[in-house]
Amino acid sequence: MRRFLRPGHDPVRERLKRDLFQFNKTVEHGFPHQPSALGYSPFLRLMAIGTRSGAIKLYGAPGVEFMGLHEENNTVMQIHFIPDQCQLVTLLDDNSLHLWSLKQHGGTSELREEHRFTLKGPPGSPPSATQVTAVLPHSSREVLYLGTESGNIFVVELPSFRVLEDRTITPEAVLQRIPEDNCNRRSCELVEALREHPKNPDQILIGYSRGLIVLWDLQNNKGTHHFLGSQQLENLYWQRDGSKFISCHYDGSYTQWPVSSDNRQSEPLENTVPYGPFPCKAISKIYWQTTKNGLPYIIFQGGMPRASYGDRHSISVIHGSQQTAFDFTSRVIDFFIIFSSDPAAEFDDPSALVVLAEEELVVIDLKSAGWPAVQPPYLASLHCSAITCSHHVSNIPLKLWERIISAGSKQNIHYSSMPWPIDGGTNIAPDPPQRDLLLTGHEDGTVRFWDASGVCLHLLYKLSTVKVFLTDADPNDNMNTLGEDEWPPLRKVGTFDPYSDDPRLGIQKIYLCKYSGYLAVAGTAGQVLVMELNDEDAEHVVDHAEADLLQDQEGYRWKGHEKLKTRDGPVRFEAGFQPFVLVQCQPPAVVTSLALHSEWKLVAFGTSHGFGLFDHQQKRLVFVKCTLHPSDQLALEGPLSRVKSLKKSLRQSFRRIRRSRVSSRKRRGGGGNASEVQEANAKFDQDVLQEMELAPVQRKIEARSAEDSFTGFVRTLYFADTFLRDSSRHCPSLWAGTNGGTVYAFCLRVPPAERRMDEPVRAEQAKEIQLMHRAPVVGILVLDGRSTPLPEPLEVAHDLSKSPDMQGSHQLLVVSEEQFKVFTLPKVSSKLKLKLTALEGCRVRKVTVANFGSCKTDDYSENDLAVLTNLGDIQIISLPFLKLQIRYPCIRKEDVSGIASCVFTKYGQGFYLISPSEFERFSLSTKWLVEPRCIVDMPEVTSNNHVHKSGTENAARKSSPGDCGEDERKSERLMEHALLNDEKVLKEIQSTLEGGR
Amino acid sequence: MNRAQRAAAGSRGLGTMEVKSKFGAEFRRFSLERSKPGKFEEFYGLLQHVHKIPNVDVLVGYTDIHGDLLPINNDDNYHKAVSTANPLLRIFIQRKEDADYSAFGTDTMTRKKNVLSNVLRPDNHKKKPHIVISMPQDFRPVSSIIDVDILPETHRRVRLYKYGTDKPLGFYIRDGSSVRVTPHGLEKVPGIFISRLVPGGLAQSTGLLAVNDEVLEVNGIEVSGKSLDQVTDMMIANSRNLIITVRPANQRNNVVRNSRTSGSSGQSTESSLPSSTPNILGNLLQEEESDEEDIIIEDNGEPQQIPKAAPSSESIESLSQIELLHESTQNGFLPSSEMNLNHSAGSISMEYEVPEPGPKSLEEDGTIITL
């Protein structure tokens, strides 16, 4: 057998392999796991999201995506775009700053880290002296103001991150001009906010945590105004004209302050507690947006009454008499407003509110009445209910595609029609070669249809199976009910809803026939639904059948969940996929395999007890087969009760570890030294690890026997028209493979179309193969006379596939977790095998036939097996000779859920979950590759803006000659430095000069 | 007896063979057609007839050309006995109830005197604490140390045959580290070790493996660089014919070779694996081919071994084996397995109340079965 494993040294084949196979991880779909920071550049119209694992992702127009990863894998705390530049600065929780830039390279833009920097205090100073709390990129693009815990504001030069020490704004300097009786040294601790004056770049507003706000003149290096807030400060926001600013506070209030040239110490114009009078939670961020009609938009996060709504994650929008508190199902990380970015415009005219919550992105259209949500074209929350399975269908016929889209559009009427407001960059990727659907099954009994053709995974249609069943809590889908007199005016937004009414509703298996539009879904409580696509609403009765997989045998007791109760009488279904048949397995164990043959109108399903075949044309159960082994008690007790308890105990022990870690931290506490605590934690982790290593990990070596648990578990079902009995007549057949290494083959007699309704479908067991190695059978496939896998049902009828060769002899490929075996048909004799596990110690987790086209010649393509192993490797194995072609490491072997979630496409691509909310897309093919290709140009506005800004700056400088000549000389030198070092800057300045002429 | 004598007298031709049969103190002589010896069953009947012991269960043995006393209990060894007998076939018959199995085997020549006296005078034979060691019903491979000639002395290659026993493999492995000689001097490298033997398991009962032995190879594949789980899966995948190369923790029981001429010796001091092992294992893996044959049940009929598709010497061999087994069942030498067969056929229709060993024997013998 070794001869089949040795990589061929045939140079022609080697060359061909290079033309066929190539591994790439191309794009991450879905919503970033654990987002921690949000940034937006109105100039580039790009949004940036940072995560707790140190990733930074940029999004613009659909298809425009960039991703970067900080080496440290530390949490991204803040993201700030440099005004009017393709650059951004990130602040991590280790207090390091990173400068990223978008550079064009080979026709596309790339995000790259340029510099990193950590602020260093003078020797001996406490770390809090340099702990950055606020970052302000100055509009001059040359410097960054860094507010710290100590109250110092450091100035660093860009892009070199050189600290300009003489420009540091110290608390002492700030306090000089403030009357002693109002303030002491402590009022200048911790800079909470830094805001540049919208009109005058020489003025910045400094907000200290204890409520003191100072307007600082950068030219004269002194405070011109100060404002004394009585409450702890959370954030600041300038009004567009710079005449007023607004501050928000810890007690849930916000205050407007006037800035007038005559009065150096202002009293607040207005102090409001929007959700008072009872104690409220902090307002952590606020916007004040002006409009033409004079009524401003006041948008703030938090501020809810502490006692009754303190647990809500809300953002309130107040516009005149309209007020809505958008209520999010997960914590709000940050938000921003998209408003007129033209500096010459008189009003803000906000158009959209963009909110990054912990589990989803929500965009609210502020222009349309009722402030409807906008459906994002990307960043979909795949996990709005936990994903339980996925199914991919390639190359969807246009007709079906359009019907699904039209069904989906009827569901999306409550969304705003506003075009997607974050539209920076240009997508230059070619149109996807075909229409692909990714179907995800969810815990709440829904199936979501995603457009997986391109870079943006986009929700087309959502199907719910809940209506067929009677559940305790009837789903109240109407999320937009808004009681008129309710206060606060909460309104639920977003789709993230991790709570399932009934876990039995969970979808476990999906099968869609793209030619007929038949869809079969199967769930946790043994329910199998067959559906048909209907473009209209309809009310009808779902036919109901029961399949007793134990065949009335006595002695079994099912201790698991009960079967779902069905709704009697007709049910109203909206346009889309409407169920017409429900089969419920008895006992109601989770459905573990599913197959649908749309031409024969048959659906096969299997559980841990056996499998059955249902005729959905005549709505009649054809047969059931029990696969249970007598000694397999586990299968009878219910859904993995022991596994659950193991999980529970694991969880408990982790909790214990965490608790002890927390207490150890507390013991050390008091110092408040973050890095020290971190170090201690790391050390503790190490100790725990070492302790774990001390306990010897042993593995038992034992042959599998028939008495092992779950041998009857049906892993795979397959329909084939092949030679099962004799070599002269082929007939429809159903194949089933179990966990115990048994393959059952049933010969089917399907009446011809004209008598289809009159005669029953008959089935007869024809073969039973017991693999001696007893490993679970994960795949069954019949190869035709040309050694090509049999086509899908109806594929030939739609002229999309050559009809299979029925002359030559057929072969049966059985893939177990350990071996690949080819047998001849109809007389079963073994022909070839590949013992994967015996040779490599890895086991097959997923296997699919994939078609690989050559990137060199259009007319060459071949079928191979794409295999994912338990080590997370992907192997390509040739058909029909079972030779290993190539192997790529893909998923970490510890990432069990990632490996379990992997789904291959028919054309050598695949998806797997890298977090509950994100699919990683990968490609094994040189020909079919979906990856973001996009370009971000510096918009035209740049040069004008730049001239304008630098013009005012120069003017300001000239207006105060001699005041700080030293400073000016230095900045000139800096400029020179920049010119010499950065060709791009040089070119840009040249172009602005030319533009100016 | 008369008939036998007559036959012996009248057939001193080329095609006949003289048989001298001894039961107790009595001798009988007769002759057989060498080319057509017939079946063992017939021969057995003939012996009972000539000794006039029609209802006595006896054990039949013969002395081969080396003088070893070997059993005749099936067609195979009967034919062997007939074909090798030159010129005389000496048959010894013992009552089954007082048979001395230890008399059989090699080197009985040197013990001949004793053996014969034991056979001849069973009554005088001083009974040792009686351990009943059954006759081998069928030849089958057993667990053993193999490839001694080609491996370094510090290593030991053990073949564990799960085949045909009910014993579990019965051992555990763990991660550990061992010291190796590398170009950079001594280095600590991770390794896989045997951590525990299950009492009564195959591993323990063969005595070929011990706790803390380092596992170097599994069926010819080096385990270095593989995780504990990988090695576990490899061993389980090969569990029906598991070949483990170990470096025994106890190096004092190593096989000491007399000459250094054979194989790849001279590497005994080397502690890492010889680079040529994959080649050495070529034949091992080939052998392994035949070990596990899947079973097919057609149309709810009889379970059959799935044959190889391409006609090869192997498949012919297995065919002949099938025939043999058919007959041995008829002989009633495998009555228990016949019983099992009935059960196993029944078990297809799921008689789940009786936890009977049917499918198991099916699987483990890997043999063909009739109803």
Automatic annotation (TrEMBL), chain A:
Segments forming domain Lethal giant larvae homologue: 272-372
| BP term (GO), one | regulation of Notch signaling pathway
Which positions make up the signal peptide?
none
Offer a single GO CC term for the protein: cortical actin cytoskeleton
Under Gene Ontology molecular function, one entry of this record is: myosin II binding
What main location does UniProt list?
Answer: cytoplasm
Residue numbers spanned by region Disordered:
945-971
Query: Keywords for this entry?
Result: Cell cycle, Cell division, Cytoplasm, Exocytosis, Phosphoprotein, Repeat, WD repeat
Domain of life here?
Answer: Eukaryota
Q: What Pfam families does the entry give?
A: LLGL, WD40
Protein's cellular compartments: Cytoplasm
Q: What does this protein do?
A: Part of a complex with GPSM2/LGN, PRKCI/aPKC and PARD6B/Par-6, which may ensure the correct organization and orientation of bipolar spindles for normal cell division. This complex plays roles in the initial phase of the establishment of epithelial cell polarity.
Subunit structure, interactors included: Interacts with GPSM2/LGN, PRKCI/aPKC and PARD6B/Par-6. The complex is enhanced during mitosis. Interacts with DCAF1.
What is stated as this protein's family in its record?
Belongs to the WD repeat L(2)GL family.
Q: What is this protein called?
A: LLGL scribble cell polarity complex component 2
Instruction: Identify the species of origin.
Output: Irena cyanogastra
TrEMBL record, chain B:
Q: Where is this region: Disordered?
A: 253-280, 351-371
Gene3D superfamilies linked: 2.30.42.10, Phosphatidylinositol 3-kinase Catalytic Subunit, Chain A, domain 1 (3.10.20.90)
BP GO terms, sorted: cell division; centrosome cycle; establishment or maintenance of cell polarity; regulation of cellular localization
Record localization: Cell junction, Tight junction; Cell membrane; Cytoplasm
Domain spans labelled PB1: 16-96
One cellular-component annotation, GO: cell cortex
Say yes or no: keyword Membrane present: yes
Q: Its principal location?
A: other
Q: Which UniProt keywords apply?
A: Cell cycle, Cell division, Cell junction, Cell membrane, Cytoplasm, Membrane, Tight junction
Domain PDZ residue range list? 157-250
Under the heading InterPro entries, the entry gives: PAR6_homolog, PB1-like, PB1_dom, PB1_Par6, PDZ, PDZ_sf
Instruction: Locate the compositionally biased regions of type Low complexity.
Output: 259-277
Concerning its family, UniProt says: Belongs to the PAR6 family.
The name of this protein is PAR6B protein
Q: What is the native source organism of this protein?
A: Irena cyanogastra
Question: Gene encoding this polypeptide?
Answer: Pard6b
